[in-house]
């Protein structure tokens, strides 16, 4: 994982020390911190930690997830140390996290990510699609749902293209009220949700006071599921958009629902 550009110093034959742009790997940074810790250079270590950021972070490999886990472990160690009290800024200030490992590595790496998610107290945007189809499935949704009570700042949750069925949709719906005060946008685009899952989501919608956009397009529910969602939408004046077009809904039904409520697309 390459991190955002930061300023450092480089030596020039003509100018001596000068600023330059560089990218540091997260693993290299963690290694440096561990070395400083072992040498007892606490003040220098603290100064580096305070300036270091990973915002935003995109995990594209298993190593990226492992490096992120090592960073969280440093925070946990720091929190138990009298000399290094408080949250690690890089962990505390992370607001956007993308997971893009694809359908092969995604299901393997996701449990590792879930175990550290609650450490990111400021996380606002969790993208588990990132155009890579991670295929976390129903099991991944169940693992993720257990972290919702700790993700109090989460505003955007993208679960598109993750092979989620009715089982996962029902588990998700049961856990969503934990995010009722913060979640603005939820995407379940292009999954395998049928009428049972759509009904579960419809049931919880009125409880989601902050939710503005729900995208359940390209799933597998029929007119029955669509009608349940549309009926629930009428109880949700706060919602702005319900995107639910899918080939399994008869065109006439979709058109009728759109005529009844312009928020449906």
UniProtKB/TrEMBL annotation:
SUPFAM superfamilies: RNI-like (SSF52047). SMART domains: LRR_RI. Pfam families: LRR_6. Keywords: Leucine-rich repeat, Repeat. It comes from the Eukaryota. The keyword Metal-binding does not apply. This is MHC class II transactivator isoform 3.
């Amino acid at each position: 994982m390459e991190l955002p550009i930061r300023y450092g110093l480089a030596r020039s034959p003509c100018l001596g020390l000068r600023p330059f742009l560089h990218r540091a790997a997260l693993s290299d940074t963690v290694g440096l911190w561990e070395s400083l810790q072992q040498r007892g250079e606490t003040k220098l270590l603290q100064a580096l930690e305070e300036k270091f950021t990973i915002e935003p972070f995109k995990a594209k490999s298993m190593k990226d997830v492992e490096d992120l886990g090592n960073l969280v472990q440093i925070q946990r160690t720091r929190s138990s140390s009298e000399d290094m009290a408080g949250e690690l800024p890089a962990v505390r200030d992370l607001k956007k996290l993308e997971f893009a490992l694809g359908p092969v590595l995604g299901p393997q790496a996701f449990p590792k990510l879930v175990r550290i998610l609650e450490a990111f107290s400021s996380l606002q945007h969790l993208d588990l699609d990132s155009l890579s189809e991670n295929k976390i499935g129903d099991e991944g949704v169940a693992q993720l749902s257990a972290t919702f009570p700790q993700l109090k700042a989460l505003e955007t949750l993208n679960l598109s293209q993750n092979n989620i069925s009715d089982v996962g949709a029902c588990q998700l719906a049961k856990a969503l009220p934990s995010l009722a005060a913060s979640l603005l946008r939820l995407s379940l685009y292009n999954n395998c949700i049928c009428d049972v899952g759509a009904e579960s989501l419809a049931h919880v919608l009125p409880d989601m006071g902050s939710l503005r956009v729900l995208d359940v397009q390209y799933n597998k529910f029929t007119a029955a599921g669509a009608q349940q969602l549309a009926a629930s939408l009428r109880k949700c004046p706060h919602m702005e958009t319900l995107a639910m077009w899918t080939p399994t809904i008869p065109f006439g039904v979709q058109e009728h629902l759109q005529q009844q409520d312009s928020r449906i697309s």
